[in-house]
Amino acid sequence: MIRVAVLGALGNMGREVIRAVQSDPGLELAAAIDPLAAGEFEGCGFEVEGDIECLEGRKIDVAVDFTHAAAAIPNIMWSLDNGIHSVVGTTGIPPEKLSQIAKKAESGKANVIIAANFALGAVLMMKFAEVAAGVFDQCEIVELHHRGKKDSPSGTAVMTAARIADAMDAAPVQAAVESTVKGARGGTLGAVNIHSVRLDGLVAHQEVIFGSPGQTLTIRHDTTDRTCFMPGVLMAVKAIGDLPGLTIGLEPVLDI
Description:
By secondary structure, the protein is α/β, with parallel strands linked by helices. It has helices at 12-23, 69-81, 95-107, 120-132, 155-167, 230-239, 251-254; strands spanning 2-7, 27-33, 39-41, 46-49, 62-65, 85-88, 112-114, 138-145, 187-189, 192-198, 204-212, 215-223, 246-248. It has 7 helices and 13 strands.
């Protein structure tokens, strides 16, 4: 039985993780942490505690973190110091902090998985885009999320663009591009333009559009309900003990 603590328990993703853990016979919900609103989580009869340090001395195998970067970094470091594996869906952790996390994970007994997206279809979308980037020389990304999403572009879009940039021999950028509306061409990450849409009614969606003379290729993934993230989260919780150090992305878990 794997004992799991959920950090960010009262957020949209945290609530889904709690339900998923309680529904899995191989997992046990051992703690739920949310500093913003400690109290009983409606529907599960489980007391939500306010600080990760309340886990000290308790038997916790894996902490699942869906908070925000400022909270996730100290959460990961504390968990590593206390021998607790971390499965992290929080994005926006700076590269220098990732290096620190990797160094600490490599020198200790606990491991870390950080993934920009736990939806298995989204993982495949990024993989397919990486393959297409070896054939096409132009690419733009349109990512669409609910209006309450704090970061733009999304962590998934940033990760996708980085992987495309590594694989694509990009066509030269046009010498001059006229825009009558500032920002109409989106933001540029390497050779990839990213366009962020934030509207009520959306959950999480991304399309990667490749172009070359005479053709385009569009690879799109749509999330219509947050439950789609849970199989990936549970797979990571069960696999993390066999993935030493820091793992970025779900690809090693899926062996792709």
